[in-house]
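Notes to self, FAM20 C-terminal domain-containing protein:
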Amino acid sequence: MSNETAYDSDRAIEVQLSDKEFEDLQENNKMLPRRSKDSLFISSKPTSGESNLEKRYIDECIKPRANPNDKRKKFHTLVKLLKDKNVSKRLWGTIDRKTRITIQEVHEIELEYNVTHLEEFHLEISDVDMYSEENSVLDSLMGDLENMSIVHVEEKEGGTQLKLIITFEDGSQALMKPMRFDRHRETLPNHFYFVDYERHNSEIAAFHLDRILGFRRCPPVVGRKLNITTEIYAVAEDELIKTFFVSPAQNLCFHGHCSYYCDTGHAICGSPDTLEVSLAAFLPPDSLSGRKSWKNPWRRSYHKRRKARWETEDNYCETVREKSMYNNTKRLADLVDTTILDFLIGNMDRHHYETFKIFGNESFILHLDHGRGFGKANHDELSILAPLYQCCFIHITTFHRLLQLQLNPMKLSSLMRCSLYKDPLNPVLLDSHLEALDRRLEIVLNVLHDCIKKNSVDSVFFYDKGVDEEKNIEKL
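result:
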């Protein structure tokens, strides 16, 4: 390999070394850690304020009290609608009829004693969700992600920003996204959504929110503090190793290879070699489930001057409904669910979505790639809700859950804070981002209120197929 030069964002020249030159550099340069089990850096001190977090957890989650100053909107009209005899019957009929067909059942696989927690989790994935409400292996899997030894690290091919594939000692794998900035760094005002930095804490928070919303369509994600020297550098592939360096501040850094932000000027640095990351459990292999990627009908233009068609046509949903897949179907209702999650976290980057091939068109939409969420605490991007306000269509169960969360004595922000307390990187979100969830939940319900005012109830809600069949039989 010959020497080449490449210019980074700061106009500094990087020299790409040959394999032989790199080996010589490793041997002779004492600043660059060798592949070893020992860190050459002083361990970071534990963060302060843990006792205050524990006290807040007890006050808010263990012994919660009603807030006399709670001024949340009560949405009496929507509550009254749920009390309607016909709507209530069909709602509970949908809930009661909900069944799960799992990957294990489709393949008729007998569970063996030597399977990993991740393999067991894969077998429990169903056509309606990633895991059931009473899933027994989820906590064990998340414990593995938090604590299990890492034996190999490689770069994930493709993508605009750096992601690493982590292999654990039991052979299971996870997708790692590193921390680039601290919690206070928001999306730069002049950055478009398609060049925004990805945030590791957004991936963690989105998993918890997806679970609270009752979707359970996001693979498990946990936060973890890694030692770059012993847990990444020591077990990384050679091509990644070549991008490591020690910064002028004496922190260990690397940048890997990707489309954006993979150069010296945008390196990922430890403190001094401790790094926060998110770890998302790997999805099943194609041989077990397969995945299909679909273009999102409401994808953005990804251009700094052009607008997408849905941004200029108020009746765009009618065009989408011309395709049988979206003609008031479960798929359209699932897409609206994804939209609601994206709006709550502020994620504008949803150009495609994925489903499991094994379940055909009945597969739920996987909730993946939430790294560009929680970037603007004080801005609510209403355009994300276009599928909802243009189609006025939603799962009756989602409508019910959103209203429950609005009327619950504990706010959505409190439920999230209590859930996130369990994560090793707690606090995962700043209070401003948690409070934004309460504000955005109310916005979603206001949109639904307007939809119901303008349309018949039957046209707004999607019920289980079997429930509608029973209703038609009763009419006969």
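- The radius of gyration is 24 Å.
- The chain is about 35% helix and 15% strand.
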